[in-house]
Amino acid sequence: MGIGSAPADDVRHYRGRDPFGDEQIDLWVVGDTITREPVASARTVLDGGWIIPGLVDAHNHVGIAPGLGVTIDRARAYAKADARAGTLLIREVGSPLDTHPLDDDPSCPRFIRSGKHIARPKRYLRDYGVDLENPDELADEVTRQARDGDGWVKIVGDWIDREAGDLTPLWTRRQLDAAVAAAHTEGARITAHVFGADALPDLIGAGVDCIEHGTGLTTDLMDEMVERSISLVPTLIQVENFPGIADGADRFPTYQANMRKLHQNAEAVFAAAREAGITMFAGTDAGGFVEHGRIVDEIVAMAAVGFGAEGALRAASVAPREWLGAGVLGEGDRADFIVLDDDPREDLTTLRRPRSIVCSGLTVS
Fold first, then answer.
1. What is the pTM of this model?
2. Partners of 24 in beta bridges
3. 148 vs 165: CA distance, rounded Å
4. What is the largest CA-CA distance in the chain?
């Protein structure tokens, strides 16, 4: 039984419907774990409604906030805000704070981490990650971060170059090839932050496993991503902040124009990526400009770019759980699920009014 979980003799039975298979679900929760085998002593706490796996925020930074200096207690508060919104699994793609202590708190979501961001001096947000003076050391740093994470590594693929006055790549193709090989040797997957277009060909060609944001994608690169099984986390509600980011960069008019164009084209780019067959997952990029607890906003935004309600819901629950190997209401899985009164395929706003959120076997309050 997990730390702080419900007593093992308090077995609860949940019966509802699965909005993806439209079948009846019966779950028995013993401590912090799901069993599909009936337990005679269980008390039935739900008989009706809809049951979905806990939502997944596939791009989240619990250990980051404006101004930095996040303590573990502050990170805990952010994590609990996400849990109250239904996010019960977080893929934390970069954090200056080690959030592993939150794993012992059953009221927090489950975490899958990528260690610290890997960037170059003055080529990312100050003090957010590791700045490599020598970019040829990228592969060595990838190895270190892979060992500190939970199966992922995060590199910064592009950022504003103040000398060029615009977004430019941080790494050469040779450095990226070595970095990808290093991550895979460690049994980790590697992902890259990319806003613009110029860094994408080398990142995709090197075989990264995922692209974060990806507003600069073109149709030929989309096809290559499909061929290479490279995923995309578009962070739609973060992209809405691009005009504000541009407004604060008066010294760099070319960069301003680029960010505004990327924002203007983003909806069409992401709709085309979905049509091309790229596997896409919901992620809010909470921790900087985006507040925690906004996963439903991201789901609604994905529905609007062509996923529809069911597709967007799948991209924030079943699909990323399978991608991350996190379990989908199976035997022995952590008891993380949401109970809804109404069918979310008909009305996604029902996600904002859950009857119950069960996190590690505990009811979230």
1. 0.96
2. 17
3. 34
4. 70
